[in-house]
Design brief:
Helices cover 36% and strands 10% of the residues. It has 136 residues and is α+β, with helices and mostly antiparallel strands. Strand 2 and strand 3 form a beta hairpin. Helix 1 runs antiparallel to helix 3 and helix 2 crosses helix 3. The chain is globular and about 35 Å long.
């Protein structure tokens, strides 16, 4: 049995890393990027909304992929390669944005997303490390 105060597992396998320094970081906003779509402010993020959004396995998968495998500032939903109807994906991405897990920007007809690492780490330290380590 582990202690309630134990640090979450480090998904990189580096046992010397601490929960305060996650293995992922938010990228700086590129110049000329559009403003984000409406979302809750950092201080408005609520744990029950975040956990509710993550309770869906597809949404958890989306957050993990964006968190661990992003190779750019943000990504369109097609980057994830999900075989789901567009309306279904729109619903899931909106749920993630409204809970405060992702930030979306509108580029013409395309919405691109990234995880709000800095805001989530500030409000719920260690939560993203748990998401990253999840292998469900």
């Amino acid at each position: 049995m582990t202690s309630r105060n134990a640090a979450p597992p480090d998904p990189t396998g580096d046992r010397s890393a601490t929960a305060a320094r996650p293995p992922f970081a938010e990228r700086p906003v590129p110049s000329g990027a559009p403003d984000p779509l409406p979302e809750p402010a950092r201080e408005e993020l609520r744990l029950e909304a975040v956990m509710g959004a993550l309770s869906d396995s597809l949404r958890l998968h989306i957050v993990r992929e964006l968190l661990l495998h992003s190779d750019a500032f943000d990504h369109p939903c097609g980057w994830l390669g999900l075989d789901r109807p567009k309306s279904t994906l729109t619903h899931h991405f909106r749920a993630l944005r409204e809970a405060g897990l992702i930030r979306q920007r509108q580029y013409g007809l395309e919405r691109r997303s990234h995880v709000r690492v800095d805001d989530l780490e500030a409000r719920f330290p260690g939560l993203l490390a748990l998401v990253a380590a999840w292998e469900g």
